[in-house]
Amino acid sequence: EVFKxxxxxxxxxFVAMKKVLMDNEKEG
Length: 28
Prior knowledge:
This protein is α+β, with helices and mostly antiparallel strands. The chain has one domain. Helices cover 32% and strands 36% of the residues. The protein has one helix and two strands; from the N terminus they run E-E-H. The longest helix is centred in the C-terminal third of the chain and has 9 residues, at 19-27.
């Protein structure tokens, strides 16, 4: 599953990220 997420370095920029990668980032 892929969704649009805000880039931490560029809040105005939206990037497509996989939900799995985002979940791992939250856990870490």
